Task: structure prediction
Amino acid sequence: MTLPSIDPTTTDSWKQLEEHFKTVKDVHMKDLFAQDKNRADKFTIKWDDFYVDFSKNRITEKTFNYLLELANEVKLKDAIKSQFSGEVINQTEGRAVLHTALRAPKTSECHVDGINVIPEVFQIKQKIEQFTNEVVNGDRKGFTGKAFTDVVNIGIGGSDLGPAMVVDSLQYYKNHLTTHFVSNVDGDHVNEVIKKLNPETTLFVVVSKTFTTQETLSNANTIKEWFLKSANEEAIAKHFVAVSTNIQSVKSFGIDENNIFPMWDWVGGRFSLWSAVGLTISLAVGFNNFESLLNGANKMDEHFKNEDFKTNIPVVLALISIWYNNFFKAESEAVIPYSQYLNQFATYLQQGIMESNGKSVDRNGNPINYETGTLIWGEPGTNSQHAFFQLIHQGTKLIPADFIGFSKSLHGNQDHQDKLISNFLAQTEALLNGKTEQEIIAEGTRSDIIPFKVFKGNKPTNTIFINKLTPESLGKLIAMYEHKIFVQGIIWNIFSYDQFGVELGKQLATKILKEFNNSAISDHDSSTNNLLNYYKGLE
Result:
């Protein structure tokens, strides 16, 4: 086994955490702050332009030490070394996991099967840079000699969510190109996009590692048919490019071989925005900003790889998440960025976290008898305060939350920024302290209303305060969550980098699709049979 395979529940630290939990589970964080005036300083990590305050959590110094011991007992340090050195840690698929190599410096070395992959990575980056500059500067033109005005990314999953989130998050830095994303196989989706486009000035980026993904190929072919109503077959080579490993199928589609950007097996889809999958990002914000995104991620990689666990941001966040998931039995975590730019951030993290760690079999192939994975959800503040915060504040569920904020605005409206950050800070304070019956009585509240206004507080939050939303800081933030996923997977003794759970539904969908063209329906359960007959109008 490349990775250690240790059932965390058999470790001494896990058993100590179970006993410790009984003594602290009902402790109120207000009392912890009252007992230790230096608590915030002890539970804050300052690194680069990140200020991470995790003091508003239901932990003591003893809790934290037990969690750190757990990380050591499951041999997390060895696992980190295995990942960065290119060992085959995605063992079920026989692959290395090296998205970190995509943002490593040119002077570094990273070996896969004995070959340093860094020179090839930089060769592709150079191709991305050249292509980006040609499109952005108007040197590369469409079939009628006009410069491109629009870019359409055609992909799904990691080939869509990452680029779409980053382009949305960095729209302040966008150039003149208008970017669109087509992902869902829903025909209404693709048709809503293409009805706004001019075929003469639109560039299409088809992203599919195998060039066999049903949704992506369906959308690509629909767009191709639409495009050919205005242009001839030869024009496809000017307007379509591909990010894929299936060179032959891409060429058969009509795409020029020079316009194919390769992918690697050692980069998983949900971690692929750093690769040529990020071509649309580069086109949208320019290659220099794309490179800054990569550089930011690399800085977080170095921090994660080298920093002591007690001041290692991804490690600390992962351990705290384990504490709530496995001991408090909190099933979900909210991610609440106080920036409208990060509108798609929680959606992006849903795939990264839930597809990676939604596993029920350990690395030995045995069923797991403890909780893995967390449900991830969220929306930007302050919108979310008027949506689901009621549940977090006064509901019966314990929902740990990450609050992400930027101290400086991009457009410089200080009045708006002060109001935004005052809400950002106030919400974590309110979740900590709550509001007592005595405080409500002191406000002169009618006696029959008092119970409804009580806030218990003691709701845990992490505050991730970043100087400013830049391509570099966004790169650090994304990489931070990537490494958090890794740490949790190691502690839970699961393989985080396969996703066999998405395959069965695809297989059955292929089978059902064939039945739409046949009069007979093969044997399904009675519910599915009825639904099929209803759709086909046979009843």
